[in-house]
Amino acid sequence: MRRSQGVIDDRPDEGGRTEKLICGVKKLELKFWDDEKEEWVPDWDTDNKEYEFKLPYRVKILLVLAGEGEKEFKFETQAAIGLTTAIKF
Predict the structure, then answer these.
(1) The whole model's pTM is what?
(2) Which of 20, 28, 41, 63 is least surrounded by CB atoms within 10 angstroms?
(3) What's the start-to-end Cα distance of the chain, in Å?
(4) In whole angstroms, what is the distance from residue 65 CA to residue 89 CA?
């Protein structure tokens, strides 16, 4: 699902318009490239001191959709993140 609202506020679960983007999702997995460790990590929590003010260099996305019967459709890609250091105000 995606929710959009003309005015951005601090209530992401309320108001706006919701749209179903895709059906039959069996699995969605995200992994994050930690450039310092040079490995994929399963979580990226910016509340953790280790990742404070940083974003991953890449995100690996795995999506598995249900097909007819037992058939599955697997999609995997990576996205590069252009901004990896937080802008401090």
Answers:
(1) 0.74
(2) 20
(3) 32
(4) 41
The per-residue DSSP string of the chain comes to -EEE-SS--S-TTSSSEEE---S-EEEEEEEEEETTTTEEES---TTSGGGTTB--SEEEEEEEEE-STT-EEEEEEEEE-S--BPPP-
Distance CA 17, CA 5 (A): 6
Distance CA 38, CA 60 (A): 14
Structure tokens at 62: 């795995």
Question: pLDDT band at residue 75, thresholds of 50, 70 and 90?
Answer: very high
pLDDT tens figures, 36-55? 999 999 999 988 898 888 99
pLDDT over 70 (residue 58): yes
Classify 15 in phi/psi space as left (phi over 0), alpha (psi -120 to 50) or beta.
Answer: left
How far is 63 from 75, CA to CA, in rounded Å? Answer: 5
